[in-house]
Amino acid sequence: MKVGGNTRDYDETLRRLEQDNDDLRGKLARHEFRQMQQELTSEDPFRLDVLGPQATAPGDVMLPDVDDVLLPRLPVPAGTIARDLLSPDLPVIAVHDDGLSGRPLAAALMGLLKTQYDKPFARLVFLCSGFEAVPFLGRYGFAVEQVGRADPATLLPRLRRRYGVVQIRSVGSGDLIARWQGG
Amino acid sequence: MSGPRPWLAHATDPLPQLLSEHPSLDGAGGLIAASQVAALADWQSIERWPGEVSIVLRRIGQEEPAEWRDGLAILLRLISGSRKDVRLLALNPAAADFLARETGLPVAALPDLPRRYAGACRLTLSRAEGPLQILRIEAGPLPARQYNLARLRRMAVIDAAPGDPDLSDLAAHANGVAGADAGDGARAPVVVVVVPNGIGLGHVTRMLAVARHLRQDRGARVVFWSFSRAAGIISRFGFETVLRQTAQHLGAETGDWLKWETEEFAALLRGLKPDLVVQDSSALQRFVVDALARPGSGAARLALIRRGMWQASVLGTEALASEELADLVLEPGDLASEADRGVTRGRSANRTGFARMAVSAPVTLTGRDEVLDRRSARRALGLGRGRLCLVSLGGEAIGDWNLLARNLVAAADRARIGLVWARSPLAAPDPMLGLRPDIVTRSVYPLAPCLAAFDGVVSSVGYNSFHELMQLYDGPVLFVPGRHSRLDDQAARAQFAASRGWATHLAEGGAQHDVLSAFMADVRAARRVPARPEWRNGASEVAGALGDLLGAGG
Amino acid sequence: MRSNVGAGTVRLELVELCSKGQLATAHLRLLDSGLDAVDHPGLWEFLERRFVEAGDALLAHRVRRDLLAAEVASTDIVLNEARYEIENNRPGRARTYIENAFGPDPGNDEARVLLGVALTSEDKERALRLLEGAATGTEAATLLAIDALRDIGELRRARRLCEAALERYPRNAMFSNRLGWIAEGTGDFETAISIVSTTRAGDIEGEAQALNRLVRIHRRLGDRAATIAHAADLLRLDARPTQKLRLARALGQPRLLEHLVSLLPAQFARAEVTGDEAGKVIGFLLEQGYVGLAVFLWQAGLPIAPAEKLLLERFGFGVNPGRQLPQSFDEALSIRSPDILFPLYPECAEATPQAASAPVLRDSDRVLLVNSVLSAGGAERQFLMVARSLVAAGLSPDRLHAALFSMEGDRGHDHFEAELRATGIHVHDLSREDISKIAMRDRDRDIVAMLPARLSTDVLPLWRLVQRLEPAVVHGWQDRASIAAGLVGRMLEVERTVLSVRNMRPRKRGEDFDWVPRSVYRELLASPSVAITANSFEGARDYEDWLGLAGDSLSVLSNAIDEAVFKPRSGPRQPGGPIRILGVFRLTENKRPILWLETIAALRASHAVEIAPRLVGAGPMADEVRRSAARLGLDDLTIEAPLPDPSDIYRSSDVLLLMSSVEGTPNVVLEAQACGLPVAACQVGGVQKAMHLDGEDAGLLLDADVGAADAAGAIAAWLPEALAAPGKARVDFIRRNYSMQALARNLLGLYGART
Questions:
Q1: Cα distance between residue B47 and residue B38, in whole Å
Q2: B207 and B90 housed in the same domain
Q3: One domain, residues B137 and B194
Q4: DSSP per-residue letters across C612-645
Q5: Percentage of chain B exceeding pLDDT 70
Q6: Yes or no, beta carbons of C255 and B37 under 8 Å apart
Q7: Do B237 and A55 touch (CB under 8 A)?
């Protein structure tokens, strides 16, 4: 198929379009990262003002594990701060919020996401013990699981099946919480 | 972690859906094989089961007599050669007698189920064509697999097409007997609410309104299955919330994503055994229907809360078809329903499939008694003196948003009105408005209690905003219909309100300068609009209708 | 760069490498050593032996090839290589090696056997001569010889060889296994059962295989109790899913099969089933025609073989745009082959032709008749009658061809072969058709690949034959041949296809998975070039009902009796002496042989009728019949094997008694009456229409569910008049309604011949 001139011109046009796309992606990612930085370094990063009387939810609803059905692996999005397409070889790592909230959580996320922005090292799935950071993480296109007060290590089998998670790490220290040993 | 399921059953056998209705059978540590074929196919599980094992023997269905006889003979041989003590059951005393004679072994009848339906509606099941079908007189048969037999028995008296003794036994068992033991004492009703990830917070808001009344008026335990990232808001309102991701969130193939949702939703249903599942959406989602049809999901009734006012261009035949699967389709009323040009208009008058349809008063989260006075509202929002106008458009306004924003700012400046920009709790803290640095934003949920803080409101025309403003606020309102709403006919609402004199409408392509100037003048003059409708508690009505469904049985 | 190291050093290195399992490295070392096969054959043979011991057949083969190319191969090397080529389906090469080394008539026992095996497809006579000495060969060669003899249908020879081998190698289970298969193939079910039962012990897999075979054999014998017992034993085992699926299939338990399939996704998810086994299940389902269930498992994440995946994708499964995938197990169940293949060519919907434009059989046109086998049975006899009547009506035998799926004598598949050949028509053994030479469009190849395996196995050789012969008419006889012939006829656009079905629908004959023929018949009937016949009114209506067709969709093609063969004896029956009561039927459950015996015993005991009972027939219940006869005191009962020409049997009998529970138009009733015999039979199927029931020559119709005592009473009351009657009316009845002329006339009409 030829567009306008000869095949060589067409190839050149495609290359330029790809380059433009890459540039645009980079620009958008930069913009997103700056916006994200602003949020995380603000005074009240995950502020949610809810009016009226509030109640405490009775507890976490834990889903029984579904281990007798073969379910397909789901993809893990790269997030809007990804400057380039992420390599498919990057491991899928779940990051647990350690029960942190507010500014400590924001600081921890900042550190992690800066590293990810500079040099992507994984596809990230965020494990939130509360709901606070969910809108934030969702806005920046990350996969989020709300896990309540469950021991994160016990979540690995399901995360493995669902996302291909190979490790669970702490958001603050980066310490390994659990590693997948099986095949 | 899960353990093995406590029953063995053929994939198409509807009996397990009833077995979980038996208080003495479900979760009692025993294993039940729902048929002799199920026992044959998985005899190892029977031998390995540490506890009690029961096998429900079935009379002949659609299989050939030789197949049925040989299957029974092989099972008897397995039983006689096993050390396992197996209890043989049948669906009723007549079947038990027959099977006892056939096998030469004691066969007990399953305890009767309590009757759950006492009305006049009847439906006929048939397996003559292969899969189980619900026969209808004036239309083609409905595949029955989308319905859980435990649900169907609450909706009608079930008959079986002739020539299928096993199906007759199933139908009779499903119909139950008046006065039969209903098991342990009643527990508080459990309701699962499914909210999609819509644009904005419309679905969440509406269902929070309803859920509060269910909890307060009926003592219900309400659990949300939320695709919306406003799950935190739901949790703040004191409801258990399971956060889910949509296929779009993950970039997943729809088919793959559906498999996860179906299995995990079914697992939730098995654990909670809810009395009611409610979805607030344009159509019932596949995973909800499929999970509900699984055995062990309980006998939850299914309700669809489906807003009207669809755009005229949306044909919606397929989306509407899912209503057949619900017990109740509730349309939260719309003040502008006279202007409804969409396919749902008038539908409430029909009955489709087994679904009863009804319309309620408009549903808002904030009630009349929750609205703050001007001073309290300004204090709650941290606002000072002067004429203030709320701008609540989200990102959905018509045409060139930047142009509108500039014109708004200019008009407000000229009229010396302060603008307060509402930000969704889901949005980023500092939206790129590209405007002056002294812009004022507020992100509060819900905002309706604080409306009195403002001397005027510029708003999109989504369901919640519209009804809050038209029922809870008496200042000037300028409606700017959203452009990107695929389904919601915001323009019709805005036009209707304008025709009633309740509000001004900034139509797409309209002369913004004049309209805005006139509006700001009204704001400046602190004009009041007394002609707007009185607030009605639609949320309580909806909760009432849902609550009636909980106790319903014809 | 090759190094010239000493052979001794290299040998040591090879020893070490082989001991570490580094076989490929060892091979490379030898190749690099500069020590070629010509000068150092011993070293090469040494390595070959090591490779054989280690089980690396491919490397051993490579070394042997080099030795053979260098012309320094020893006897052992030649024999090993010949064996390898045979095992890898290259008998031609094996033949070359052996003849080059040992000549065309080897003195070496092993070489003789291997040469015989290599020649079985090419030169059966010579092969059999060479294999006479197979009993003295090695274990491996003997095994090959046995399998080769089985492949060419020489079951008796194979059995003798097996028995001799078992004396020499009593512990080799492969010989006893084969003996069991051979015994089953020749109808010696007792031996087969005994062997399979003794080989039951062992691992679960072996036990499951043995139990599956026992179920199959006992079901064939009609021994329900044993079938049930063995089925239960298998289900008790933690056997692989494919074993249980085969069991369900063999038992005629479709719901059990479906349930076993529905368990698989969870079993796979819990790692209770391996990926390899899961793939085998999918393959099994496709073989059986359960396409939807195969897709269901594939969708559920079970692994599928690449070739099967490709085939499903070519039919639109799993591609976009493509077919809607099944959303539930129920939907998956409804997607089956061959249903999904029909209509075959939707883009070529035929207009209904007018009768006048239907093709007419030209004088040079060939007619191809197709049947399953030529075993001793009524339907097979009628197949012979078709050929005879056509030839008698003047059709040149050179234009007539008969094709059979099997003609193995040792299995009894050739009972009517001599008579068929005596008509002068061409007779083709479809098992000998070279299907590697079939020309097919890609689309047709896909269609055939997607057919259930049993059907595609029949279609392929028939396709080849029809391509070669280009007949104007293909006539399938009985269901198996009819559906294959019908499909081939349709797909190769044969001008006219005639399908003559059985006397009752498959399910009534115990064929549980009957959707395959149903689907094919319904598809074929949509084509105006296809005609389907039954041999009785009742049979035609039964098939129409089963196929969901309007009445008169099937025509009736009555059986024919050769009056030159089946004619009355000259002269009346001599009075006095025992009444010679004859039964001619296959010894199977639906013929109710035990009821027959009990009726005879009751006639004797309760009615003091002097009887000389005689049974002619064979079948799976033969042993049970003998035991029952002994139990009933019928020590004088003679049981004879079916004879090629049974007409003498009738003429030397006085009465025919038939007590089947299921019949179409029973040939024996027609034949007996044609020979003047009075007939007593149960009123089932087309029996009533087949009997002359008027006047003094009338036969006796017994109730379908009559008991022995009542039957004996009715027979005792009827016999005197029946025996005294002249019998001419019976004979005329048959000649009027069941003549060869009428059959030929009807056939030629169906074939479109000008009358």
A1: 13
A2: no
A3: no
A4: EEEEE--STTHHHHHHHHHHTT-TT-EEE---S-
A5: 92
A6: yes
A7: yes
Determine which helix (DSSP H) or strand (DSSP E) holds C717, and give its type and residue range: helix C708-724
C117: CB partners within 8 A, 6+ apart: C86, C91, C94, C127, C131, C141, C144, C145, C148
Do the chains contact at C232 and B81, CB–CB below 8 Å? yes
Q: Is the per-residue pLDDT at B430 higher than 70?
A: no
To test the contact with chain C by mutation, choose from A68, A69, A70 the residue with the greatest count of C C-beta atoms within 10 A, namely A70
Give per-residue pLDDT as tens, C70-92: 999 999 999 999 999 998 989 99
Question: C254 and B42: CB-CB below 8 Å?
Answer: no
Inter-residue contact C153 to C410 (CB < 8 Å): yes
Contact C331 B131 (CB under 8 A): yes
> Any CB–CB contact under 8 A between A1 and chain B?
no
> Count of domains in chain B?
4
Cβ <8 Å between A139 and B223: no
Please confirm whether the linkage preceding A58 is cis (ω < 30° from 0).
no
How does pLDDT run across C711-729, given as a tens digit for each residue? 999 999 999 999 989 889 9
Q: Is B430 on the interface with A (CB under 8 A)?
A: yes
Out of B431-435, B437-441, C171-175, C740-744, which region has the weakest mean confidence (pLDDT)?
B431-435
B183 within some domain: no
What is the structure's pLDDT at B434? 45
Compute the distance between CA of residue C497 and CA of residue C526 in angstroms, rounded to an integer: 12
Give contacts of C301 with chain A, Cβ < 8 Å: 70-72
Instruction: Read off the tokens for C320.
Output: 């976009």
Q: Which CATH superfamily is domain C7-184 in?
A: Tetratricopeptide repeat domain (1.25.40.10)
Three-state DSSP class for residue C213:
helix
Residue B37 contacts C where some CB pair is shorter than 8 Å: yes
Q: Give residues with Cβ within 8 angstroms of A69, minimum separation 6.
A: B259, B263, C265, C266, C269, C300
CB < 8 Å to C328, chain B:
12, 131, 145
Domain with CATH 3.40.50.2000 in chain C: 364-556, 579-737
- Counting as contact any 3 or more CB pairs under 8 A, the partners of B are A, C
- List the domain range (segments joined by +) for residue B141: 122-175
Set of chain C residues whose Cβ sits within 8 Å of the Cβ of A67:
269-270
Between residues 208 and 247 of chain B, which touch chain C (CB distance below 8 Å)?
Answer: none
Chain B, window 82-141: residues with a beta carbon less than 8 angstroms from a chain C beta carbon: 82, 130-132
Residue A38 near chain B (CB below 8 Å): yes
pLDDT of residue B320: 78
- Tell whether the model's pLDDT for residue B540 goes beyond 80: yes
Class for the domain spanning C579-737: alpha beta
User: What's the count of helices (H) and strands (E) in chain A, helices before strands?
Assistant: 4, 6
**Beta strands at C367-371 and C473-477: parallel, antiparallel or unpaired:** parallel
CA dihedral of residues B249, B250, B256, B257 (deg, nearest 10): -40
Instruction: Say whether residue B258 is in contact with chain A using an 8 A CB cutoff.
Output: no
